[in-house]
Structure of D-3-phosphoglycerate dehydrogenase:
Amino acid sequence: MMRVLLSASSMIDPDAYRERLSNALAEPVEIEVARLGSTERLIEAGTGFEDGAGFDAVVVDVDTPVTAEAVDALGDELAVVVRAAVGVDDVDVAAAADAGVTVTRVPEYCTDEVATHSLSLLLACLRSVTEYDDAVADGRWTWEDGRPIRRMSGSTIGLLSFGPIARRAAEQLSGFGAELVAYDPFVDGDRMDERGVEKVGFEALFDRSDHVAVYAPLTASTRGIVDADALSRLSAHSVVVNVGRGPVIDADALVEALESGAIKAAGLDVLAEEPPVDDPLVGRDDTVVTPHAAWYSEDAREELNRSAAADVAAVLTGEVPDGRVDPNADWL
């Protein structure tokens, strides 16, 4: 009997795992769904069986950190931890590797969705969409409520990171008549040139950009990288968009830049704390905040579950999963 633990998340569809694993495994599989949300709950849900055995696979949402302590507590049976998401920023990949546990993720299930959402946030901020909507709801009917607005054509848009999502966003932005520049130390200039994007250094990204869209994962090197100095290099008409991870931007510095008028607006799908508690970035007239929903479409959700279930099946049948995370990857 093999055991699989699934986080009780609206993102995760237990039926997808039951179907895939029942077809792939030669032995019965028991699937348990538990509300996780913390390392402590993960350990509690993943241990304590009367027969002393544990789970062979664990599938977690973005809200459940998988620490070295959790990997150790889940026991020797554990073969794979699946992060039902693009990033693995709160999974201890090194500890898992040391324990012989494979970590997988689903890196491209929502590429189109997040790219489109980033463009939606940029346009909403640039065109003062929410300000106009609020003004009309209050009984006003004047273009002046959205001032000042500048054209996107002829502007420069900076992309922080140039992975699959940023590359798709660059394709979408190509028709707007803007110049595109990008900073990513792991992508060479030729790959950017192929997509009409100029590779620049980090400081040059902010010096040259009218607007910046953040796609970077959260790592030791990206945490807080968009700080007060970076934001000070932008202009009063600039928009900052973040669909990467909240802590990539220094939240205090972003609030200050908005308060002082150093930048025009921010479009955020991710925050430092999710869900937010008394976050000063929420509820502002100059911010558009969505609830970490950039990934979502019904198509993306279905693809996420198909891919994650396939990775579980691959590991439990001795194959290499498509979403395997290399513990020695330079981006971790």
Remarks:
- The chain has two domains: 2-109+298-316, 111-289.
- Residues 298-316 form the longest helix (19 residues).
